[in-house]
Design brief:
The complex is a heterodimer of chains A (382) and B (345).
Chain A: H1 13-29, H2 46-54, H3 73-85, H4 91-107, H5 110-121, E1 127-130, E2 146-150, E3 153-161, E4 171-177, E5 189-195, E6 201-206, E7 215-226, E8 230-231, H6 237-249, H7 259-270, H8 276-304, H9 310-335, H10 347-361, H11 368-378
Parallel strand pairs in A: 1-4
Antiparallel strand pairs in A: 2-3, 3-7, 4-5, 5-8, 6-7
Chain B: H1 3-15, H2 24-29, H3 35-43, H4 62-74, H5 82-93, E1 103-107, E2 117-123, E3 130-137, E4 140-147, E5 151-154, E6 164-169, E7 178-179, H6 186-218, E8 220-221, E9 224-225, H7 230-255, H8 262-292, H9 299-309, H10 316-328, H11 335-341
Parallel strand pairs in B: 1-3
Antiparallel strand pairs in B: 2-6, 3-4, 4-7, 5-6, 8-9
Helix pairs in contact in B: 1-4, 4-5, 4-6, 5-6, 6-7, 6-8, 6-9, 7-8, 8-9, 8-10
The chains are: A alpha+beta (382), B alpha+beta (345).
Amino acid sequence: MQRLNFEPVLTGKKEAALRSDVRRFLANQGTFPPGEVIDSWSVCNPEFSRLIAAEGWLGMTWPTEYGGGGRSYLERYVVIEELLAAGAPVGAHWVADRQSGPLLLRFGTEEQRQHFLPKIVRGECFFAIGMSEANSGSDLASIKTRAERVDGGWLVNGSKIWTSWAHVCQQMITLCRTEAPTKDRHAGLSQFIIDLDHEGITMNPIKNMAGEEHFNEIFFDNVFVPDTRVIGEVNQGWNQVMAELAFERSGPERFLSSYRLLEAAVEILRAKELQQHAAAIIGQFTARLMVLRQMSLSVANQLQQGKLPVNEASVVKDLGTSFEQEVPDALRLILSTEARLDAKQGVERLLSDAILKSPSFSLRGGTREILRGIIARGLGLR
Amino acid sequence: MNDLVKLVEESATRIFKDFSESDVYDSMEAGAFPIQLWNDFLADGWFRTTLTEENGGTGLGLAGGYVLMRLAGYYAAPIPIMEPLLGLYVLSQAGMPITDELLIPVVLDNEPVGDTISIAGVPWARDAAGLVVVFTSNGNTYINLIRRENYTVITSQNMAGEPRDDVQLNINPLDAAQRLSDDITASQISSWLALGKSVMTAGALQRVLERTVEYATERSQFGRQIGKFQAVQQQLAVQAELTSASNCAVDAAIGHIGTPQEWELIACAKITTAEAAGYAAKTAHAVHAAIGFTHECPLQLSTRRLWSWRDEYGNEQDWSIRLGEYSLKLNTDGLWPWLTTQTGE
């Protein structure tokens, strides 16, 4: 049996200096609105993204020839964990920086890299994820949106759903069927970069139960996509998507979505008389966080070494999202307060946001059951 | 992992063998000291692993010892491994003579007062040549090697049948005690013991996972391997997650020995491994079903140890309270800096 690999890694002086820079930057930003700090990587603020870009913190690991920072995955890790722990609104650029850029670096053409990567790095081009459809969620291979060959490119028809911030993004990497399904369900899929301003695209916002309107349903009616906007190989989209998901699953955003609540709870409990059962819960959660962080850092280091630790990434995401979902559940008991939907500040608002947003934590990027299926395959059970 | 650690692991693996078919467990649980195994380990000098090369060790210090403890956990070794490794290490730190006897490290929770000191749950006390007793008195850390003739034993066992004896010292450990250097505290040695049990637990968790996955691919019901059922796969996936988290947690703790965050990382390791132990034992038995409940099935050698070890040297609740109290005493806005300082910066 292949053992899961989480060899520990230590960051060094270079990362420490960078961490100080990020903390200085954040101190200058002041505090973020309490209503936006839970799951802050779903909070879209293009202006803030451009501030991050100006610091050189977008596309940090990408080659300098495309405007990237040429820095390590561990350096990027330090920057993003500091931003997330502070509750900074990093949602606008998140997908482009985390997965679209790396995907183009891996599979894109030279022209695509030169065209898109510098724009992403400058905070001028945001990407949305076009994978799920109304009838294709976990069963991604069953998508119906199709791209048909026409002169000089492809004609896309169909729809995508749960496309976060598509109304703000300029581009969407869209998975389409380019050949009729065969016995091999994963064959015949291709990825396209679609300009979201293009004629034939309509979008309907979908309000979520936490009151936010960040995702959409998006329709394609004879949308022309030139050949130059095909990513990688036609009909090889499935393997590319799987590689994309490895980048998506293991980062600190998979366990820090409710971190501001934990921090706020600790501040409140600090001022109270210490109770043993409260200390036990805080201790248990800090231990889990400490270990998750070590695991996630280890995966970042493996990505740096050019490995693709798909199973390890799934482990981090499953343990991490369970953690961030359990934080509000456990803390409400020791804070002994009621969550308030409309509170302008305070732990009541953080609790409300953390509870109402938490169902999505273990859905986005592969459900808990899908992840465990991947891990079971790694164990040799499938 | 550095090359020397890898080398120690590879060569030590050869001496640990699959004891599961042997009757050494039955005789050990019946009270016989496994002298043959002990002599095998002794002959190759394994108990000196934590010592300097001049003293016959590897020069790897505690990290080298923990390599052996993880193997001891994995193979459910029916002899004391952790105790002589840490006992000799503590002796060497005090500059006391190194011997080939079985010496058991014991940390007293309180200052020794009076003529009769009772200590509960001392591993292998009955068979030991002496106890390496460490304690704090008036703010100083002391060490005293108390020989077998100076303590009495009421024998007892943990759920795995491993000796955990109740001991009464017949002399005051303060008499002729030696001061330990100011660099080492009793609570630090206590945390090394807790890490030892965590490391052994991490090893046992890996073994239990492998046994369970193997069984799930061998056993068929309803015309298919039970591992093909999603309900089983999902549980085994979680078991694998907690097992890998445990191994990562102990690796991180070992990597922080001697740093300012040593005990905090050890606390995280004990909490993580002890929690995983319960889930893994429960799931492994559910998958093995009735056969796993038999004495004959080797699964019980590991699961009885998991259930015992998670409580030894502090359970997950004890350590969570300690870590939580510590977190709650950090300065305002101090939690995040604390969480991110252990990265060798």
